Amino acid sequence: METPNNNGLFWLASYPKSGNTWTRTFIANLLSDSEQPVDINALQTGAIASSREWVSTALGIDIDELSHDEVDQMRPAAYRWLADNAGDDAYHKIHDAYTYLSDNQPLIPVDATRGALVIVRNPLDVAISLANHNQCSIDNAIESLANPTYGFCRGKKRIYNQLRQQLLSWSEHTRSWLSAPSLNRLMVRYEDMQQQPEKTFRAIADFLDIAATDQQLATAINNSQMKKLQAQEAESRFKEAPANTQRFFRKGIVGDWQNSLTDQQVARIIDDHFDVMLELGYIDSAGNPTSLIDAEATAA
Per the database record, which ranges form the Sulfotransferase domain (predicted)? Predict the structure, then answer.
């Protein structure tokens, strides 16, 4: 059995639109130890796991002519090399589900991993943000959340700057990371990051081995507030935003689904993801949404 590598990579794992970039801004602000917020276009926290350039450089070969499956088969070796040669601590965003390859080895090897911070968010709210991100209808976003073959950069003819990312359904993605054997992990909810920031971000900093005083933590939390990220984006387009998306940092509130989803859409999401939503506290045993509600959402 593989064991975690104390010198390995830290992963920031999440389904898209679940708070990963927000978490990275917090980390960047904490590491900067500055009174001024870090530029959202200079979040030097580490490469995304699906970066074609990052993986290709680690392997030392051109991977552009390889198939998705062939590249995936080589990704564990790339991450092992990076774990041994990366040097300074870094915190790598990853949207891939925790999947296994044809030889049954995990795409993300435990022996190259120092820890995985798993960020989860209520799929009722994810659906709205994903629709905005993908420039599609909410119904289409709900279908994607339930699609066991959903992923990014899956085209066979175009070479993307990112590798294929197999997301699976929201439930499968969440379970894949929370059930991965021998993985050193911490799970945090987006809702707790909003409503219990000091406690939740302290847990994040401690897990990621980032030493910080209470004042440094408070400053980083303050500099990472959604309204400050939105203000920066209003002045200068966020370079990680999809080309056709007007705003990446949209609302960031808890419970916005109450303003945006129909009863039928709510029922479908709960039906699609009942077991995992119940496990994470997003619904009760009768299938009713729990009161993880932001005051701003109810006042909107």
Answer: 10-274
